[in-house]
Amino acid sequence: MDKPHIVIISPALANANNGNWQTAWRWSRFLRKDYRVTLAVRWDGSSYDAMIALHARRSAASIAAFSAACPMLPLIVVLTGTDLYKDIFTNRDAQRSLQLATKLVVLQAAGLQGLNKDLHSKAQVIYQSAPSLKPLNKNPTKPSRYFDVTMIGHLRAEKDPVTFMHAAKFLQSKNVRLIHIGGALDPALGKLAEKTQQLYPHYRSLGNLAHAATRQRLKRSQLMVITSAMEGGANVIIEAVTSGVPVLASDIPGNRGMLGGNYAGYFPLGDSLKLAQLIDCAAHDAKFLSLLQKQCTARAPLFSPQREQAALLKLVDNCISNMEKHT
Questions:
Q1: What are phi and psi of 237, to 5 degrees?
Q2: Low-confidence residues of the chain, pLDDT below 50?
Q3: What is the assigned CATH class of domain 5-129+304-325?
């Protein structure tokens, strides 16, 4: 008997090197033992037994077409940050995707709060994951020459890279280096990064790097910063935590859903001065850095590949089983 065939629709594939692609690729690997899996940017009308679509708005055409052609088949919609915190309030295509979905997936616990209560019965949380990397032995008695603080994210408005750039002018620590990894999707932000690098040599913009190289850079950092204005469940937080690197994060629902309500490393959205003060504190206060480390370590079990794969397989298995019962 042939394995059921699932299509994963992702608005971004490998060349985008972003969170949507990482999720689509990881889920395809998780499912391949029990299912045939095809990755695509859009549905071309081919026959499948189920669809998983990332992004309610950007995949809306594929969602609508698949639902119309195959109304009895499972249709799982995974909600991104721009879905949860913008599009589902203003965009009719995104709103329609929520209604058409058989199941909805949010990527952190606070995501459920962004949905109307009538959708909760078909929604669930699946935390994303990353393989653990053995943390570097950062000996406090022999501190590194530099305290490297890394931000990972393409230069676009939703990631608010300006806050990270502006923090450079407020830093007091002489040994801190701010390292930004990500392509300049917004040319104006790319020019601002170049200007910031010229004005403040302790800020460096490395541009787009391969995923493996990015993880190694992150692993060697003392701290990771995420300044985003909206996030569905940031892969970079997971990759930092599973690499033993503590995090400073903008105080938004998507980050709170990942790191917990009592996390000590939040700063107000867009507040470059507060971010710089927290970086200075982490660079010189071992107790504060240790607190961040302990809190991140406590969250790490949520982000294990085994946990994510088990949750995903259970969801898909149940959807396929229910479909077979009604056919």
A1: -65, -45
A2: 141
A3: alpha beta
